[in-house]
Amino acid sequence: ISNQCKDGIITYFNEVINLKPWALEMLDASGKLPSSFFGQTMIDYGSLEDCIKIKAISNDGAGLFTGKYCMMHLRHPLFQTPNHNPQFEKSYDQAFGVPPDWIRYDIENDLPLRFGFYGGICMPSSCTDEDLNKAISTLSEPLNLDVTLTDCQVEEPLRLSVSAILSMISLVVLLLVCASGTILDLKDRKRKENKLKYPESLTRQVVKGFSLYANTKELFTENVKKTSLDYINGFRALLCVVTVWAHAMIYPTFWKELRYRNFHLIFEFMDYILENNGPVMVDCFITISGFLLTYTLWKKIEQSKGHLNVIEQILQRYCRLTPPVLFVMSLYFVCPLISSGPVWNSSWAHEHENYYQNGWKNLLYIQNYSFMTEICMTQTWYIANTMQHLIISLPLMIVTYRYPKTGIFLGLLFYFGPSVYFFYLSLEHQFPFASYNSLRYTHLAEKFMSTVYVSSPYHLPANLIGMFAGWTCVKFGKQKLTKIWLLVGWIVSILCYAFTTALNFMPTKNFKIMAFYDSLRITGMALATSWILYICATRQGGIVEKAFSSKSLVPLSRISYCVYLVHPIYLVFRDAIITERYYMDRISQVGEFTLYFLFSIFAGFIIYIAIEEPFNKMYNILKKRVTSSTPPNDATQIKNDTVLKQNRTEKR
Fold it and tell me: If residue 117 lies in a helix (H) or strand (E), which one and from where to where?
């Protein structure tokens, strides 16, 4: 420890004894042992604002040092999660010894015990972070405590990183382009009303694509063409709400709770359908993605006799998904400049580290092959999955059309291969059920998420089942099912859904049964989803189809991708800005979710009208310009003529 630090600490404690105001203020700004400690209230923030404003003054009026605030984390090995699955191997007592009586109940009931005491401390600024870490480690060594210091802060001017500056410049440029596009669009609309001519250059069209007025109007405008797939808007909107609710349950940092035990009780009584089955709900989205792929492209493949521009389809998906991703990434650099707090820096530091190290993977959509905690924008693992599924599905569709037996063989291989492999993997690692209740086995949950859950082959069966449902609609969608078959279909669908969502609470400790069940859950959810997609596409969905086809759900469906991308920012921001403990219960959760969901909708709306829709328009404008300027070759012309003749024949 440096001499400066020693002198500062000695002066601090001496002046506390002498009741100097500044020394007492430093002591008052530090955290203390909280009330309800035995109820697992494990944090006291102290006061960051009071601490960093303190100026220590000597008896002759000279300045000595200022206050330095740090968050101190103290952990004891006895209260940590075992490094193996206690459900199948050693018990906690066998691994660590008998715990104290006051915490024995929680340990025996699998409380996720990755916690310690977290307290804010106010110390002299003459001590470096390393000095303070050494001093506290020395004092806590007899108690066998692990010490970590984070978020050390002093009063200093705001520093802007290069990434933050570039992000702000990009946002300002975007704002100017949107303002210019809106003004141009409104002017041209006025000229059109007055029947005046106005220029339509390529640049003008692109800039007008950023018109906030036009994009907002189009967002809330109903499609002129009524299609048989309108119900997907409602389905997508419902899944969007479920996803946001599920993330609201698992994203909070639990040690910030007023009573940690209370959060454990909430986990014990989690809603069986919506919350605990969040991990498998995402396969509904993946099934819809596969369904839409074959439903929209299979006829094109048939008309072109097995030809499809795969590169164009992938490029179109890439250009649609990437701009919102880049925009949300820039927000992660700007948001840390907005406020501060006791854990503000550490809350954003992990995100920034992932951006600098793995952000490039987001542009290639391979981020799901990183460890879960290292993914830049964790929620984008799903987007990477859909892109990788697209790359597999397009060639598979072409092969299936040209060589049906080979295509069917590959489809079955892609279905059974991942299912068998991940069954073996779950068996080997003894993973528990894939549900949020399994988060109590923290180390296993992290390993499962990184090695299994975010992997695209794991969810590939759902995509394939969705593709098959889409193909079935194209080939047999005009044939109406009898009432008996409708009844059978609904019964099977409900049973599949019940199998997927309810049986993960079965009282078994046989990990073979668990692994087998987990390997079939995705199939069950995909089958239940595919039935709804198929039956509504054939106009036999009844009340379900009518509810999902509601016009009021269309705007939420259109912005659902942007909502999905941006909603975790609120959760990170909420945890970062907190300066005091809060008590979590069901009423608080509902209120928190309401505010959180409204923020997500508003932010998703802004990103949609300023980013997603303008860049979609730009892609279509440039594609149209390139297509019109490229003369067709002989082979293309012959193929187009053939398609036209076939269409005329079909009409006749």
Answer: strand 117-124
- For residues 338 and 332, give the distance between their C-alpha atoms in angstroms, rounded to a whole number: 11
pLDDT class of 339 with cuts at 50, 70, 90: confident
Nearest in space to 480 (alpha carbons), one of 535, 403, 524, 406: 535
User: The whole model's pTM is what?
Assistant: 0.84
3 state DSSP class of 308:
coil
- pLDDT digits over 114-164, tens only? 457 788 889 999 889 888 888 888 888 777 777 888 888 888 887 888 888
Among all chains, which residue has been given the structure tokens 């005491």? 117
Neighbouring C-beta atoms of residue 527, cutoff 10 Å:
20
Q: Which two tokens stand for residue 603?
A: 């932010």
Q: Which DSSP string do the residues of 435-467 spell out, in sequence order?
A: SGGGGGSHHHHHHHIIIIIT-HHHHHHHHHHHH
**DSSP string covering 55-113:** EEE-TTS-EEEEEEEEEEEEE-GGGS--SS-TTTS--HHHHH-PPPHHHHHHHHTT---
Contact 537, 549 (CB under 8 A): no
Reading the block at residue 150, the tokens are 């984070």
Distance CA 40, CA 35 (A): 9
Helices and strands (H, E) in the chain, number of each type:
26, 5
